[in-house]
Design a protein that fits this description.
Rossmann fold; binds magnesium ion; four-stranded antiparallel β-sheet; 14 strands; Alpha-Beta Plaits; alpha/beta; globular; binds adenosine-5'-triphosphate; 348 residues
Length: 348
């Protein structure tokens, strides 16, 4: 079995509203998959079908080799779930909730409490183990929910916006934990609106919009294809300009911006002479010295050698580079582009 999850034409219709529309998705074993999409896109609905919480209207979903409709018990046994809305018993303590989960999944009694305590220590919630869940803060509830969902060491772990409300330190602990689980062979499905989190953690990313899968690739692959589509748009716009001839300055700027990459450089030894020589570099399309001394440049974003050439020119001019950064398309740019074409009728 190559894939932890495979769906074919998976569809969920609520009354007459299609929340998930004929989704074909493959998530390879032992990978971290990021599910992105605007509010109401159908992410949680998809996860609920994959975790047997709701029945698909049509189509098929295979999780860990089992069909969610034919073998829901087998599917439930191999998955763990941290839901978007924490679903622990409010009147039970953190410890009791985790014990209940462990017993449900048949965790051996002699290992149960030590496993729970190890997990509590890992996410730093042991100090509240005897508190009732109803009395916990938002982030503490999230941690308690994580412990309960991990105690049976699930092969496939679903995390629906798990780091919302967590403080920066705990967020990083959870990222480490996700990586560690993945290193130990677990498959992780992560829904998140945190682009940095997804970019950093995930092997593959799927973007869902109004119930449809609109993009699926590695984070870098998505960014590369955004550059490629910018390039195409620019070529098309340029060919239109040559046909029409009359184009406003702002349109020209928009087109130019599509093709330029930003660079920002700080020198240890900035002098007018050095700046004058840098300005002569043929790879620089625009240059501006910011009030904090940084040299902000724009170079041809589609020329693989442009950044290298600019650095060489600066060094030849005698510049000593203290820091340098270039701005690449981010996963957020990809998200905005992939989800910008929304048919308002589909959202009702
Ligand atoms: N039980 C339900 N009955 C009717 N409509 C529902 C139900 N559950 C979800 N929906 C609708 O399905 C659509 C998808 O909802 P879903 O919760 O899957 O979105 P999501 O992608 O998880 O969004 P978010 O990022 O806000 O969590 C929404 O328009 C929602 O109103
Ligand atoms: Mg959701």
């Amino acid at each position: 079995m190559k894939n932890a999850i495979e769906t074919k034409s998976l569809t969920k219709v609520f009354n007459k509203f299609t929340a998930v529309n004929s989704l074909d998705l493959e998530i390879p074993n032992n990978t971290i998959f990021g599910m992105l999409g605007p509010n109401g896109a159908g992410k949680t609905t998809t996860i609920k079908m994959l975790t047997c919480l709701i029945q698909p209207t049509s189509g098929q979903a295979i999780v860990g080799g089992y069909d969610v409709q034919k073998n829901p018990d087998e599917v439930r046994n191999l998955l763990g779930m941290v839901p978007q809305q924490v679903s622990l018993y409010k009147d039970l303590t953190v410890m009791e909730n985790s014990q209940l989960c462990a017993d449900y999944y048949g965790v051996p009694q002699d290992e149960r409490d030590s496993r729970i305590e190890d997990l509590m220590e890992l996410v730093d919630i042991k100090y509240a183990k005897d508190k009732r869940v109803g009395q916990l803060s938002g982030g503490q509830k999230q941690k308690a929910s994580l412990v309960a969902s991990l105690v049976h060491r699930p092969d496939i772990l679903f995390l629906d916006e798990p780091t919302i409300g967590l403080d920066p330190t705990t967020k990083r602990t959870l990222w480490d934990l996700i990586r560690e689980l993945n290193d130990n062979g677990h498959t992780i499905i992560l829904c998140s609106h945190d682009m940095y989190e997804v970019d950093m953690l995930c092997d593959n990313v799927g973007i869902i919009n109004t119930g449809n899968l609109v993009a699926y690739d590695t984070p870098q692959g998505l960014k590369d294809s955004l550059l490629e589509s910018n390039k195409q748009e620019m070529t098309e716009a340029l060919s239109q300009i040559s046909e029409e001839n009359e184009v406003s300055t702002s349109t020209k700027e928009d087109i130019e911006n599509l093709s330029l990459k930003k660079m920002s450089i700080l020198l240890n030894n900035q002098t007018d002479d050095i700046i004058d020589s840098i300005k002569k570099s043929s790879d620089i399309k625009s240059i501006e010295i910011a009030h904090n001394g940084r040299i902000n440049l724009r170079v041809d974003g589609f020329d693989d050698m442009a950044v290298q050439n600019v650095i060489n020119d600066i060094i030849s001019a005698g510049g000593i580079i203290k820091s340098i950064s270039t701005e690449e398309p981010s996963l957020e740019d990809v998200f905005i582009k992939a989800t910008s074409e929304v048919n308002e009728d589909d959202r009702a």
